[in-house]
Every structure is written in C-alpha cells, then in structure tokens.
Amino acid sequence: MTSEAKPKIILDCDPGVDDAIAIITASRWSEIVGITSVSGNVGIEHTTSNALKMKTLLGINAPLHSGASKPMKAEPFHASHVHGQTGLGDTDLPEPNSLPDSDDAVAFILEKTREEEGIHLVPIGPLTNIAQAIETDPSLVDRVASITLMGGGAGVGNVTPAAEFNIFADPEAADVVFRSGAQLHMLGLNLTHQVLMGSEHADYCYELNSTVGKTAGDLLSFNGRTHGTEKETNLGAMHDPCAVLAVTHPELFVSKPRSVVVELEGSFTRGQTLVDEREWLETEKNCNVYYEVNSEKVIELILQSVTEASPNG
Ligand code: RIB
Ligand code: CA
Fold this sequence. Notes:
Layout: E1 8-13, H1 17-29, E2 31-37, H2 44-58, E3 64-66, H3 80-83, H4 105-115, E4 119-123, H5 128-136, H6 140-143, E5 144-150, H7 165-169, H8 171-178, E6 184-187, H9 189-192, E7 196-197, H10 199-206, H11 211-227, E8 236-237, H12 240-248, E9 253-262, E10 273-276, E11 287-293, H13 295-309
Parallel strand pairs: 1-2, 1-4, 2-3, 4-5, 5-6, 6-11
Antiparallel strand pairs: 7-8, 9-10, 9-11
Helix pairs in contact: 1-2, 1-11, 1-12, 1-13, 4-5, 5-8, 10-11
Bound molecules: alpha-D-ribofuranose and calcium ion.
C-alpha cells in the first residue's frame, strides 16, 4: 500500500496491551495524524505514558494529546488485572523521552478534523474523549470519514454477561456517540474473539531479534496469559487492532447495518450495546455492526506490521 493510499486516522486509545499492538498495526497500515489517550485499562497517566513509549519505539511523528482522566458520570473502572499494573504487561520499554503535545485531546480532535477532511476517528478505549468532542461541536460527526470503534458487541460481554469493557467503563459517553448520527462502525467482542493470538505468534516476534519484535512478543504472550481462552496455546483475543484494520483493509470484514442502543439503567445490563437483529423492522440503523473477519489475514497483517517496524526484521 503506497503512503498516499493510507487512510488517515486519529487513534484514541487506553494502552493497554492490545492498544499497543494496534499502534504498531496503525503505524504500518494507516497514516496516523494524531494519537489521543484516555483513562481506561489503567489511569490516564499510564495510558498517556504508554502511548508515548510506543510512539518513541516506533518513531511515530504524529502528535499525542492526553484526554479524559475519568468517565463522564461513572466511577473510574480499570482493568490492570488484564493489562498489568502499568498497562503494558511485563514489557520493559524505557520511559518516554517526550511529553504529550497537550492535555486537551478534545481540542485536538476538533481542530485537526477542521483542518483535514477524511479523517477516521478510531477509538479503542472508553469513548469519553469522543463523546466530549461531539458535545462540544456536534458537526464533528459530519466531517469525519467514520467513527470506527472497538467496543460493545452483538452478544456476551467481558465485564458483565452483557457489557464489554470500553462501553461499561463509560456508558454515558457511549450513549452520546451511538446517538450522534456519525458513520459508526462497531467491532465488538463477537467479532474480536475470532482473532486469537498467542505463543506461536509471540515466538515469531521474538525471532525477529529486534526491539519492536521483543516488545510485541512480550505483549502477545502477556495477552494470551491474561486473556487465555486455551491455556496450553496461550491464545487470547486481539481486540484493538481489528478496529484499525477495519479502516485500512475493509475487504477483510463483513458488517451489517443495525439499530444499536446503549443500556444505561439496567441492574444487570448497564453498558450493554443492544443490537436489534430484527431485519424486518424499519428501525433507524445507526451503526454498522461487524460479524465476520478473515482472521488469518488479520493476524498476518499484524505480524507484518511488527516485522516491518523492526529495522533488522
Ligand atoms: O474489551 C476489550 C477492550 O477493552 C480493548 O480495547 C481493551 O484494550 C480494553 O480497553
Ligand atoms: Ca483498548
């Protein structure tokens, strides 16, 4: 893919082990015009520092702007049991050699999307920054190419039986986004659980004998251990890179237009993305829900990102 053909994205993230793999993937297959951090897997200090570490590791020139330190209404909710205390598992990256370009992710998102047409917003953490940007300037949704998010799902959750982490962590923010009228693409757990990576992929990365390869190997191995669906193969779902690749390689996915609402009140279902699968109803279809993926090719592209980011790969 030549550089002029690469889709432009702003990656809104909460690194996060799979977010870090998504940054590697995005650096190869997209034109990253900005990275924004949000509180999610771990607190904003760590998500921001982790995004800076990945920027330094990969030599990404795009700016990084830190964002929301807490959800719009919910109490902060983290996932250090899945991503490690600092959020990047057991990687040993050096402290970042730069500071964020600002602490106002919302202002950056609004200004950058006024400057440049055709940017995809790719949120892969709680939707707090995106919701605040939309509330500040609702016309945002008309000037971005899409909002393509990892979150929610058409089926079971991972925090509760009904709710996925990114939505559960800030349901009010998700509600703003799903009601915004944006060109919305939802890659939820029903999709991302089809993309499983583990020991064999980590070993491939280690054998590249490079810093990026070792970092990716550590991340994939840690992800398998904490997400592990099958202990002996250390396989874990690789959620966030799917949202990036849905923008850069849409041919690898199948989605359907659906009506999706975010449950805010349910005693057992708060944070659920309720998908109306009843195709015979004339409901307003506010979201493209993703159902199928060419998992083998997605994994190949993720590993190719690691290889090509490794100078001696
Ligand atoms: O439920 C998976 C999502 O929650 C991923 O984005 C992961 O990084 C966590 O933020
Ligand atoms: Ca994430």
